[in-house]
Amino acid sequence: MKESELNGSEMIESDLEDAEVKESERPYQKMLDSFREGILSGRLRPGDRLEPERELASRLGISRNSVREGLRALELIGLVSSRQGSGNFVSVNFDGTMTDMLTAMYYLKGLNEEQVTEFRFCLEWEAMHLAVERAEKEQKQRALEALRMLEEATTEDERIRYDKAIHEAMVEASHNDFLITNYRALTSFMDTYFKSMRRRIIQGMESRHELEMSHRLLAEGMAEGNLVKGLRGLRSHFEFIERYK
Amino acid sequence: MKESELNGSEMIESDLEDAEVKESERPYQKMLDSFREGILSGRLRPGDRLEPERELASRLGISRNSVREGLRALELIGLVSSRQGSGNFVSVNFDGTMTDMLTAMYYLKGLNEEQVTEFRFCLEWEAMHLAVERAEKEQKQRALEALRMLEEATTEDERIRYDKAIHEAMVEASHNDFLITNYRALTSFMDTYFKSMRRRIIQGMESRHELEMSHRLLAEGMAEGNLVKGLRGLRSHFEFIERYK
DNA sequence: AGAAATTTGTTCGTATGTATA
DNA sequence: TTATACATACGAACAAATTTC
């Protein structure tokens, strides 16, 4: 509508209007810009309710359909959650999007297991450095408890579960949300599309009791604040992956 | 919202309805599922054109507006690009979304510069390991050329530019798209919201000629395939950041 | 407890701009 | 240049869930 007006007018004006035209890109982009501004300014905080869709539409000068396109996009990336009859709310929920993105990268960019492992190692390596400094008691206990369960485990599924739990506790203990979010997305992706790999590794390790050894170093190193020990466990774990992938 | 349905109805039914509930999700979710299926099955490849919106709508049994909500969401995360009059195309373009997510994490989760630096270090540390093994001639040359320009640079803006170029070449040389995408998003985020930090670091380094020293080690280490040298440069760089952040 | 108001969920119809053969 | 196919965008309407009084 507005576009037709602009296109209908002479080109000479368009330069002058550039700033305005830029502003009035796609309608749903306006919605996104408005949201971004709210976040960056601190006006919008997690849990806050957005204006009603109709209000947003009229304030931004776009249709409700366009507002909704923006809302759905924000919902998809985990920044908004919509409740029928109630409203749209600011939310912070990136895990799903991250997983989707890593998954899409894997499939669309033709990646392979090696790159996944490299990335995972990258995250865990740094996480260990931070974890030995920052781990809370709860996280240390969780790691040690999972280690105990791992050593007592009798089935493969149990081993997989406690293996994961140890790594998760360690990464969480890093208290770095960039690492944590990426790591969660990566493991979630692996759980869904990579199950066989984790199984092969566990199987290979089991036969040689290297699983317990590396995880003992890893969990205890973190719990004791012993970086060298923790890293040795990590390295031994990934050397194993390298061999059995 | 779906939870409320399930909680409201009896649990006995929910099992039976599971399949049907799955079928009758939200309309725009159907659109996303259809897309996901296409990607995972390999039927949809980057560059491919999607069915026309009307066709999708009728095939999935939803309205065009709902299709469009899904399409806009996919466009936002960089998986679809829409061209009016032409169609919707599969695209692979995560950089913007990644940046948005890191930005949102920073603001909504109350992160700080320290966590950003930790994550950046994490990515670069692993990237260096891979880069010394995999760097192509072009990437080595680009790093060395940027180093030369950095040492000849006279303005702060130039220093910032060539500093960035060296790191970028190194990360790209890792040939790991998980690292690369995260790194690009991180630098893009820093460029937009963190300009002052990079400037402070450059300024601090300038006075002591440590900028050139660490980047020389970094660039040459990578170009020569000398891991120890490269890591020394990286460490010295980040020690500086630690001091001047 | 119940009715009314509010708000999102979803669809349809229509007009219009844009690319392509 | 003209069709045709397609995306863009809006507005109106009703359904469904929630909140409010």
The Cα radius of gyration of chain A reads 24 Å
Quaternary status: homodimer
Structural class of chain A: mainly alpha
Give the topology string of chain A: H per helix, E per strand: HHHHHEEHHHHHHHH
Distance between the termini of chain A: 57 Å
Largest sheet of chain A: 2 strands, antiparallel
Mean pLDDT of chain A: 86
Question: Which regions of chain A are unreliable across 5 or more consecutive residues at pLDDT < 50?
Answer: 1-23
Provide the spatial order of strands within the biggest beta sheet of chain A: 1-2
- The share of residues in extended strands of chain A comes to under 5%
Biggest interface goes to:
A-B, 52 and 50 residues
Percentage of residues assigned to helices of chain A:
over 70%
Q: Assign an overall shape of chain A.
A: elongated
Report the count of strand segments of chain A: 2
Helical stretch tally of chain A: 13
Topology:
The structure is a homodimer of 245-residue chains.
Chain A: H1 2-8, H2 11-23, H3 27-41, H4 53-60, H5 64-76, E1 80-83, E2 87-90, H6 95-108, H7 113-134, H8 137-152, H9 156-173, H10 177-193, H11 195-208, H12 210-224, H13 227-244
Antiparallel strand pairs in A: 1-2
Chain A binds a DNA duplex (21 and 21 nucleotides) through helix 1 and helix 5.
